[in-house]
């Protein structure tokens, strides 16, 4: 996400009626600059010096607001901690089995699988999620 995309995200947030607080702006900026998919606790730890009056509860509440506005997506995996992704367009994730790092990758949307699932189950499919697991270059080279 670029600086222009950050400005667009802030405008979208304003459009929901939410105020642009220093905490919300700081969280958005951090999510834009990091290539990882941080937990709320990781965000709090990265921003606590920059925003000393912000609590971890404030981070959670702001992430909830950003998620409701459609500016971040929440990823849940087996480790019971949610991770947050500023990239909300269709994409998939590859996850390192050693260190847990998550990276985005693009692949044609699997709409045929959704249509097939609807046909054989009579469900009304709303979305899907695909994850690929492996060992990242930093872990397998070290």
From TrEMBL:
The keyword Amino-acid biosynthesis does not apply. Fe cation binds at residue 128. Its main location: cytoplasm. GO terms for molecular function: DNA-binding transcription factor activity; transcription cis-regulatory region binding; zinc ion binding. GO terms for biological process: negative regulation of DNA-templated transcription; regulation of secondary metabolite biosynthetic process. Its cofactor is Mn(2+); Fe(2+); Zn(2+). SUPFAM superfamilies: Winged helix' DNA-binding domain (SSF46785). Zn(2+) binds at residues 96, 99, 136, 139. Pfam families: FUR. Binds 1 Mn(2+) or Fe(2+) ion per subunit. It is found in: Cytoplasm. One of its GO terms (cellular component) is cytoplasm. Keywords: Cytoplasm, DNA-binding, Iron, Manganese, Metal-binding, Repressor, Transcription, Transcription regulation, Zinc. InterPro entries: FUR, Fur_C, WH-like_DNA-bd_sf, WH_DNA-bd_sf. Belongs to the Fur family. This is Fur family peroxide stress response transcriptional regulator. It comes from Scopulibacillus darangshiensis.
